[in-house]
Structures are given as C-alpha cells and as structure tokens.
Amino acid sequence: MGHQFLLDFLPLFVAIDPPGILPFFLSLTQGMAPAQKKATARTAALTGFLLTATFTLAGRFLLDILGLSIWDFSIAGGILLLVFSISDLLKTQDVEKARETFLEAPHAEKMRSLGVVPLGIPIIAGPAALTTSLILSKTRPFLEVSLALLANIVIVYAVLSQADRIDRILGRSLSSAIGKIFALLLAAIAVSLIHRGIMGLSAPGG
Predict the structure, then answer these.
(1) What is the pTM of this model?
(2) How confident is the model at residue 41 (pLDDT cuts 50, 70, 90)?
(3) Nearest CA to 155 among 28, 52, 9?
(4) Cα separation of 13 and 110, whole Å?
(5) What's the CA angle centered on 87, arms 165 and 126, to 5 degrees?
(6) Alpha-carbon gap, residue 145 to 147, rounded angstroms
(7) Residue 186 half-sphere exposure, CB side, CA atoms within 13 Å?
(8) What string of DSSP letters covers the chain?
(9) pLDDT tens column, 60-79
(10) What is the Cα–Cα distance from 122 to 56, expressed in whole angstroms?
C-alpha cells in the first residue's frame, strides 16, 4: 500500500512543484499581513485541490466516452508534460509578469481573488498537475489518486503558510533552482509516459 501511494504521490509532487510555487506566492503577497497570507494560502490550496480533483473525475468519464485507451492518453499526456517541463525550464520572467498583471487590479478585487487566481489556478492546479492526475487516474483508483493529491495539497499549504520563514532560510534563488530540478524530473516522467504508451500500443492487443 505504501509503495502504491508513493507511485501516485511522487509524480503529483513533481508536477505541482511546491518549491516552484513559493516565489510566486512571496511576490504576489508582498505587503500583506501574516494573517492575510495564511488565509490566501488556504484559499489557494483548497481551490487547487477542488479543481484538480473535479477535472480528474470528469476527465476519466470523458476519455471512456471517447473510447481512448490508457496508451493513447499516456502518449498524449507525456508529450504535454514534456512541453510544460521544457517551458518551465526556459522561463525566467513569469513571477514578475504575474505580479505586474495582479497589481493592475483594484486592491479589494486583488484581496478576494488572489487565492483563486492566479495562485489556485493556474499556479497550483496548472496544466502539469491536471494532466498528471488524469494520467494516474486511468491506471489507479480515483480515491487513491485523490488521497495522494490531498497529501500534496497539504504540503503546498504548509509551504505557503510558512513562506516568509522558508524564504529566510532558503532564499528565492535556491527555491527557484529547486523548481528547475523539479521541471527536469517532470521531463523524465514525461519521456517515460511516452515510452510506455508506444510500447503498450505496439504490444499484441494494444
């Protein structure tokens, strides 16, 4: 059971990338009171969990209706994850762009929506997390994937709620570097998915 849980938990952990989320959170919540930051972290984590779980459940039924096999989706999902991971490895200005866009909104609107957009969507529940959870749900029970997702969201909330303390310890440069390592790991997972999908379709009866 523990081994199977790790097989669900680790790909989601890499896809969600809590260290990579930290610089976004720190930049977007700059100037907020500690209580406001914790409330925002809570809203972002809850939004990310609900959206990802809903997308995963609905996606399972949609794939069944369309008659797509796990191998079809493994190849398509692997290609998408590879694109996302390469994009993440190459981008350098997303934090500042997100902050500039966010600062254009009125103050009251920012306070209400920050935890939902952009932190909950698409920073936590981004394309990589959504695709990974859907791929896992095609081969694993939905409840087990949901538990692994929940465990990851708890970690995200723990990281964000202690963001200032972690920033003092690690610094944003190290946090960003860890995020790049996670993107590289995600690329490796993507290649593995593509390989398994091709092998599955090539096998007799695939």
Answers:
(1) 0.80
(2) very high
(3) 9
(4) 28
(5) 60
(6) 5
(7) 30
(8) -HHHHHHHHHHHHHHH-HHHHHHHHHHHTTT--HHHHHHHHHHHHHHHHHHHHHHHHHHHHHHHHHT--HHHHHHHHHHHHHHHHHHHHH--SHHHHHHHHHHTS-HHHHHHHTIIIIIIIIIIS-HHHHHHHHHHHTTS-HHHHHHHHHHHHHHHHHHHHTHHHHHHHH-HHHHHHHHHHHHHHHHHHHHHHHHHHHHHHHSTT-
(9) 888 778 887 778 878 888 89
(10) 15
Check residue 78 and give its pLDDT: 86
Overall domain count for the chain: 1
Is the confidence at residue 183, as pLDDT, over 60?
A: yes
Of the candidates 127, 109, 140, the one whose C-alpha atom is nearest the C-alpha of residue 5 is: 140
* Domain around 141: 2-202
Note every long-range contact of 136-142, with CB atoms under 8 Å and residues 24 or more positions apart, other chains counting: 136/8, 136/11, 136/12, 137/56, 137/57, 137/59, 137/60, 138/60, 138/63, 138/70, 138/73, 138/74, 139/70, 140/4, 140/7, 140/8, 142/56, 142/57, 142/60
**Which of the residue ranges 44-53, 116-125, 138-147, 196-205 has the most confident prediction, judged by mean pLDDT?**
44-53
Q: What is the pLDDT of residue 108?
A: 46
